[in-house]
Amino acid sequence: MEVGIVGKPNVGKSTFFAAATLVDVQIANYPFTTIDANIGVSYATAVHPCKEIGCVPNPQNYEYRNGVSLIPIKMIDVAGLVPGAHERRGLGNKFLDDLRMASALIHIIDVTGKTDVEGQPTEYHDPVEDIEFLEKEIDYWIHSILKKNWDKFSKRIKLQGLKLSKAIAEQLTGIGVSEEDVLQALHKVELSDDPTKWSDNDLFNFVRELRKINKPLIIAANKADAASDEDIERIIKEGKKRGYTVIPTSAAAELTLRKAANAGYIDYIPGAKDFKVIKPLNEKQKHGLDLIREKVLDRFGSTGVQEVINRAIFDILQLVPVYPVEDEHKLTDQFGNVLPHVFLMKKGATPRDLAYKVHTDLGKSFLYAVNAKTHRRIGEDYELQYNDIIKIVATAR
Ligand SMILES: Nc1nc2c(ncn2[C@@H]2O[C@H](COP(=O)(O)OP(=O)(O)OP(=O)(O)O)[C@@H](O)[C@H]2O)c(=O)[nH]1
Questions:
Q1: What is the whole-number distance in angstroms between the Cα of residue 46 and the centre of ligand 1?
Q2: 46, 72 in Cβ contact below 8 A?
Q3: How far is residue 125's CA from residue 231's CA, in Å, rounded to a whole number?
Q4: Cβ–ligand 1 contact at 225 (below 6 Å)
Q5: For residues 87, 88, 93 and 99, what is the CA-based torsion angle, rounded to 10 degrees?
Q6: What are the phi and psi torsion angles at 364 (to 5°)?
Q7: How many angstroms separate the alpha carbon of residue 15 from the centre of ligand 1?
Q8: Keywords of this protein's UniProt record, alphabetized (predicted)?
Q9: CATH says 149-213 is which class?
Q10: Of the four listed, 208, 323, 356, 371, which is most buried by Cβ atoms within 10 Å?
Q11: The domain over range 2-126+216-314 is classified in CATH as 1.10.3470.10
């Protein structure tokens, strides 16, 4: 599951990325640790089931802190975006390449309005324009891929009687579009079954719906520490009108807190509403941290960075953390590790889907599953719930 950070220059993207991927963890040998400078490991946080049932976990593919699971996710700092990226302006190509991989986007905007559309300092620039411009860039990009061979392509669909949703999804596999995505978008626009009858406007409307489904996004109203309440409230309202969740953030504050925590000065769990000083600070450090407490944590309840990440994973992508175990009484794997693994499953996924996620062989030999919290056997079509602990029973292999 990959989350992309997007936005025009100078809004605090690099700061957000640095903060989001800076976690002091012991083990970091996930498959995607350091592939590229702009790819990092970030963590979604969720209450750990042990907090509820009173156990001590031995996490193998996630981290655990004071009753909280830190679940690794891949984060991509998408190359700088300027108007016209779809026409290869600026880092256009790189931008679109990075974007291809992302399942959800975090759009960072400067809520103070002090950066213009190219990322230059200015007196006032309306950040709402940035929301619209990003949508447009992505729409133009998807549109250009479809438009390239549209006449030939639509005729072929008609002549050969191809399934429209399948054919379009095949054209767009490169950007991670599934047939299900296409079906959902088609359902929204209600266009003719015959694509040769689609006008360019129809195609554009379809693309817009598809983008909302395939590249869903959440907005981080960054530099909130330097913005007025009115500016923040306005952008939340304007975002909502357009169907977006907007979270005020201070990426700079989060980065400072995580650095201080890593250096052992403070106890701070990402997303927390406060921190505890655990090592003597000099005057300057103390002043800096006091300011963060007063101007950010007390004002907003947190720096917002972790909330954005969590919302992207749990609300926007609708994933639920699920813990598979082999022994449903001790909640262990075959080696005695308590709740060793967590998997993020799509809402609506079933125990069989979980079995496949653990291992293809386990999926193939799946017989039934047991809910380890209730010790009850659960049905084929049971929808996995947040923090479920599941034992999978399979045929002997
Ligand atoms: N007040 C405030 N300033 C911030 C915050 N986040 C970033 N900044 C400042 O904004 C400026 C730009 O931050 P960057 O993280 O470099 O922005 P960027 O979007 O990555 O910019 P490019 O690398 O040019 O694409 C820097 O001076 C940061 O210190 C924040 O939360 N609050």
A1: 28
A2: no
A3: 12
A4: yes
A5: -40
A6: -65, -35
A7: 6
A8: GTP-binding, Nucleotide-binding
A9: mainly alpha
A10: 323
A11: no
Q: Where are the alpha helices (DSSP H) in the chain?
A: 13-20, 49-53, 92-101, 127-147, 150-160, 164-171, 179-189, 200-214, 229-241, 251-262, 283-292, 298-300, 305-310, 351-358, 360-364
Give the fold, CATH level 3, of 320-394: Ubiquitin-like (UB roll) (3.10.20)
Window from 23-27, 172-176, 196-200, 336-340 with minimum mean pLDDT? 23-27
Residue 90, ligand 1, Cβ within 6 A: no
Domain regions of the chain by residue span: 2-126+216-314, 149-213, 320-394
Hunting for tokens 């004002």 — which residue is that?
299
Predicted complex ipTM: 0.97
Q: Name the 3-class secondary structure at 364.
A: helix
**CA of residue 16 to ligand 1 center, whole Å:** 8
- List, for residues 173-232, the tens digit of each pLDDT value: 888 899 999 999 999 998 888 899 999 999 999 999 999 999 999 999 999 999 999 999
- Per the CB < 8 A criterion, the answer to whether 378 and 351 are in contact is yes
Q: Cα 363 to the chain's mean position, in Å?
A: 26
Best mutation site among 5, 8, 11, 106 for ligand 1 pocket (most ligand atoms within 8 Å of CB): 11
d(CA 304, CA 181): 30
What is the Cα–Cα distance from 181 to 326, expressed in whole angstroms? 35
Q: Quick one: tokens of 180?
A: 């299900």
Question: Which tokens is 283 given?
Answer: 């005057």
Atom 1 (ligand 1): residue with closest C-alpha? 223
Residue among 8, 14, 120 to mutate when testing ligand 1 (max atoms within 8 A of CB):
14
Q: pLDDT band for 90, please (50, 70, 90 cuts).
A: low
